[in-house]
Amino acid sequence: MSDSMEYADTATTLDPPRPTRGARSHMPTASPGPEAFLHPGLRPERLSDPTFRDPSLETIAKKLSRGERLDKTDGLAMLATPDVNGLATLADRRKTELWGDQVFFVFNRQINPTNACVLDCKFCDYALRPSNPDHYAMSIDDILGRITPELREIHIVSGLHHRWKFEYYVDIIRQIRLAFPKIQIKAWTAVEIDFFAKISKKSVEEVFEILIDAGLNSMPGGGAEVFSERVRQELFRHKIGADEWLNVHRIAHQMGIPTNSTILYGHIETMEERVDHMLRLRELEDEAPGFLAFIPLEFQLGYSNLRARSASAVDGLRTVATSRLLLDNIPHIKAYWVMLGEETASIALNFGASDMDGTILEEKIAHAAKAESPIGVARDRLLHLIREAGKLPVERDAVYNVVRRYPKES
Ligand code: SF4
């Protein structure tokens, strides 16, 4: 069991861990035998039993029972299956094998220091061009004023400001660390790290060294969008592509910084591009382990006119379940309630998701694109949503140390 999986069942002993060099997996080390995937109703001799209505799911169940890795064909079959219940059964079984009934969440706050951005991604309703006088930019006092000591995690992502120097971004981390030494700081996407390297004329490694010294603990997974050059050219041609995004995370993992991973789905991407994206993440985790979670982010329609209607709840649930089964080396799949909506996120806890992110408290990015979820939720609301799904709420910190286990009943 890796350090980050050793549970500290007390809220008082958790100091933010310092990243230690060297890529490492955050998966539980006890590897389940193939029989662990088999529900009694799915014994090989009974696979014609109508547990599955879709024969491709039967094939996938057989592969899982033999401990075989799923491939692109399986991924496409899962994303298209009409047998949503069968898919949920497989994904929940795998999630239960890893984490039992536990579903994790964190008492966190999101901070978005500026919405000024030098890029112009077509799907983004959050950023404003630097020339737009309505953009905002927080001072360090503004940022510190949003933080309270009982938080476990500060999650910081931002626009790429036209005037801020790298030193200012470092100072944000350093001042939070000095003022709140116990809070873990998860900050800056790969897009921002790449931007820092460019504006400071430093390597990505040097940027990380400086940020670690200032107090960075981990990295969020945003900015990946979809690893498709076709989609990039169409929607975000000035932003880094798949190779650069993956390389920043590779370096982070090698330097001991755990990170998250995402996909932005439900816009112009094809199902094949969705699956390719997941498989590239799986490849990187094989090569340089360090992902904590994968977060399918549902595209919010906003003002972009990219499509007429949002991805359906069933599409979201299939995507969660497919990612749980394809990404066999990434510990957690998140049901990100901000974009899925609270109710669908709660259902996703039976489709392979083992994490609900957190309280967030102040979300600006998805809400700029007209997300209908609340701006933040109280801890009690998260407990309720997890219990409603029949799961066991576990409060965690940013790197999945246990802060507190809650009973199944309130
Ligand atoms: S998605 Fe990120 S990089 Fe692109 S315009 Fe919005 S804030 Fe800027």
Give a brief description:
37% of the residues lie in helices and 11% in strands.
Which assembly state applies to the chains in this document?
Answer: single chain
N-to-C span: 30 Å
In total, the number of strands is: 10
SS-based structural class?
A: alpha/beta
The gyration radius over C-alpha positions equals 20 Å
User: How would you write the strand order of the largest sheet?
Assistant: 8-1-9-10
- Please bin the fraction of helical residues: 25-40%
Shape: globular
Here the CATH topology of the largest domain equals TIM Barrel
Strand count, sense and barrel status of the largest sheet are: 4 strands, mixed
CATH class of the largest domain: Alpha Beta
- What's the structural domain tally? 2
Which kinds of small molecule does this entry bind, naming each only once?
iron/sulfur cluster
| Number of H- or I-type helical stretches | 15
Percent strand equals 5-15%
Low-confidence stretches: 1-13, 37-46
CATH superfamily of the largest domain: Aldolase class I
Assign the CATH architecture of the largest domain: Alpha-Beta Barrel
Topology:
Blueprint: H1 55-65, H2 72-80, H3 84-99, E1 102-106, E2 108-111, H4 140-144, E3 153-156, H5 166-179, E4 184-187, H6 190-200, H7 204-214, H8 229-235, H9 242-254, E5 259-265, H10 271-287, E6 291-298, H11 313-326, E7 332-333, H12 337-340, H13 342-348, E8 355-358, H14 365-368, H15 379-388, E9 392-396, E10 402-405
Helix pairs in contact: 2-10, 2-11, 3-11, 5-7, 6-7, 6-9, 11-13
Bound molecules: iron/sulfur cluster.
Iron/sulfur cluster (SF4) is lined by residues 117, 119-121, 124, 126-127, 159-160, 191, 239.
